[in-house]
Amino acid sequence: MEENLPLKETIIGARNLTNILLSFILLAVGIGFSLAGLSSYFQTNYLKITDTSNLIFYPQGIALLFYGTCSLGLFLYLFLTIIWNIGSGYNEILPEEKLIRIIRKGFPGKNKIIFLSYEFKLIKGLKFLRKEGINPRYNILLVLKDKREIPLFPAQFLLNPKEIEKKAINLSKIINVPLENLKI
């Protein structure tokens, strides 16, 4: 790896397979629960897979309608984050300029593009964060001299631990800062 070249790493945002599958599940569940709740209110079966028209509207129908509305609300939120691709962007390391830039897409409005830029002299070190267990997480944190810690990858960004550790080692060599290995 040549150290005077700019290094750019693309970050995948909300537009990933997990979010797309989850949004379809939320849509199906939301429609199902809402139709079941409406079936109990109107005493007419709107679901073809089962008969929910003979459920008592209060409290079962109201609960089904509430769960359906919540599920459809979560679907809408997730669908919009996928459409807008929230969290996507890139990390750019510029060794010649001694800069690291973190660029991400945010929600539409004032913070649509999140742009963070730090000089190497402001960086105290890097942390390689490992969380083992049922839901393992690996991340590289940029530690600034004012004690702020900025993650370089999104929380759901799943990488091979050896691959992300190599990235952390290379990045610490380029920036010339110590690398701390944390296990949670």
Q: Can you walk through the features of this model?
A:
This protein is α+β, with helices and mostly antiparallel strands. The strands form two sheets. It has a four-stranded antiparallel β-sheet with strand order 1-2-3-4, with no helix packed on it. The chain has a four-stranded mixed β-sheet with strand order 7-6-5-8. The chain has two domains: 68 residues, no CATH class; 97 residues, PH-domain like, CATH 2.30.29. It contains three helices and eight strands; from the N terminus they run E-H-H-E-E-E-E-E-E-H-E. The model has no long low-confidence stretch (mean pLDDT 90). 19% of the residues are buried.
Detail the topology: elements first, then pairings:
Blueprint: E1 7-11, H1 17-42, H2 57-84, E2 89-94, E3 99-105, E4 113-119, E5 123-131, E6 137-144, E7 149-151, H3 161-175, E8 179-183
Parallel strand pairs: 5-8
Antiparallel strand pairs: 1-2, 2-3, 3-4, 5-6, 6-7
Brief synopsis:
By secondary structure, the chain is an alpha+beta fold. The chain has three helices and eight strands.
The number of domains is 2
Strand order of the largest sheet: 1-2-3-4
Low-confidence stretches at least 5 residues in length (pLDDT < 50)?
none
Overall morphology: elongated
Order of helix and strand elements from N to C terminus: EHHEEEEEEHE
